[in-house]
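We modelled the chain as a single entity of 691 amino acids. Its sequence is:
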Amino acid sequence: MALGNWASVVALSGAACIYGASASVVHAQEALSEITVTAEREKKEADAFQSTTQLSGEALQRAASSSLADLLATQPGIAASTFAPGASRPNIRGLDDYRVRIQENGVGSQDVSDFSQDHQVPVDPLTADKAEVIRGPGTLRYGNQAIGGVVNAINNRIPEALVPNGFAAKIKGGGSSVDSSVDGAASIDASGNNVAIHVDAFARRAGDYRIPGGGVQANTRQQSEGQAIGGSYIFDGGYIGTALQHITSLYHIPGVAESASRTRIDLEQTKWTTKGEWRAPNDKIDAIRFAVGVSDYRHKEFAIGGDGIDGLQNTITNKEIEGRIELDHAAVATPLGPLTGSWGIQASNRKLGTSGVLGGLLAPTNTDAVGGFAFEQLQLNDTLKLQAAGRIETLTVSGMAATFPANFLPPPDTFSETAAVRNFTPMSFSFGVLQSLPWDMVVSLNASRTQRAPAAPELFSRGSDGASVTFVIGNPNLKIETAESVELGLKRSAGQFRFEASIYYTRYLDFIYKQLTGNFCTDVFASCGATGPLMQVAYGQRDANFRGAEFMAQLDVAPVNDGMLGLDGQFDVVRATFADGSNVPRIAPMRVGGGIWWRSAEWYARLGLLHAFTQDDIAANETPTNGYNLLKAEVSYTHTFTKVDGGMRDITFGVVGDNLLDERIRNHISFKKAEVLQPGLGVRLFTTMRF
């Protein structure tokens, strides 16, 4: 049996058991729904200069999401594009696409999801042990395209340590009523003689999802599967390992025209990664780490064309390589206190392009980038720390630059193209102060000036993008985008009442965005004029201001039976305007929510409501979006078995009800909000078995 078919059988066998999550014993004092706020790379809470939202364990499976974006979309400051069940990208504080980096184990996802809203991120939550969102100065580690934040999926595909008792296995699966879906995954970890290996496989199948009022959202079915194998050599003070992974996915695109033409995307990615770490090699260096990722990505877009034939319409390819090395130096004694820090280098190459009967949105492009970064922290006393970080990067972006008339209307023939090369040197730095306060609180203040170079599609696009119903015209003369930010945070991560609050303000100089020209087109520029199904947009730059606030809290109310009864709450808002006071398009609405929960060593239950307000702070050619109430209930049970070598360690199973009010929810930041409703009431069953 082929590996892919075997993987599907194993994964869906787990799904038949109805999947859940990690069944480790969880105490009442732990964070609600296993959502914790930590610093990057598992540093202690007191060392955090910016928060990292984490989702792990049972919470990953209760979310029942087929994308990282949807998994995190209800967390403060985070939204999702929800373009299709198989294609949804995270939006962080009003920023998305080329400003939000998605990665797996620190290496970029190396896909084309930043290129257009209908493109999938080939990192499935079924394969993740943890998902985290990094904001603030920590993003400087990962390149100028992470100016808005980083979403990182973490798993054990490259083992970093030997497996306790030499063997561990997990089978998980689930099913949902809203789309008649079934999903599952299986993994094996084993070690011996300083060698650790990991094997995993997953698969998911889903039909068109149901919407409020009866019926289904047409053309929303999907199916995907993946496999991975990895291994590491573990030695005193470190490890070195490698992994090979493969994913295929076939998903459909909703919308009136897309449903009629049966638009769908068939993607495939093969990716090789290797990484390692050497801790404390001498008295000058604490650790050295490296990571390398190489991938070959291709997807094909199928639909019924103008000739009435169902076939291939467009092909997008992306070949990418990325490498990074970091060094943590040992503490240096200074007159002000000990100084610790990390220095690193990152380099990458990306070859991206399109072809097909639609004329090609983007001719082949090549992007080379090399950057260096440094983080330093000074411990002034037991309660006060300072942090400084910086990054300098050089990029060379080459492609075919199109020359369009000033009014973006076609001359008698068409536009002209010439080979072009653009060079950029974005420079970024940040400074932070962290002060411990009474009552286990910590206050932080961060200021930064970060820069982003325009991406190849922003410079060289010149064709139709059916996903966003636009005809996109790049601007080869775009300049570097600069963000000047300040953020104040206050948090308490221990005790009966735990919370995190932050307010921020960012001024963007030369903010890159798509501006409507007032023209319309079909599939080629020669058709552009007063009519057509596609709105013509051209990349431009304007100064803009983003400001917002986020809050989340958890309160242990009282012990009940053998568990803890508690409350939680959250709030987030972002306002984004251009320098003239007009609104930046597609900004998520203000939200407020809360819930009541009870947790013991075996049981977890929660009832929560999230309210999104009407979004009427809209840009030109946008329409207001009604608010909604998202009611969710969940309960799960974990049973731990008496230890038996080779036997089952624990089992978790549970049920989740989502959108229990069956609300008609439209996502304001989605290009398809007028045509596509979000899923209606649904119930998910899940289970996990660990051995």
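As a brief sanity check on the tokenised model: DSSP finds five helices and 33 strands in the chain. Helices lie at 3-16, 58-62, 68-72, 256-261, 456-460.
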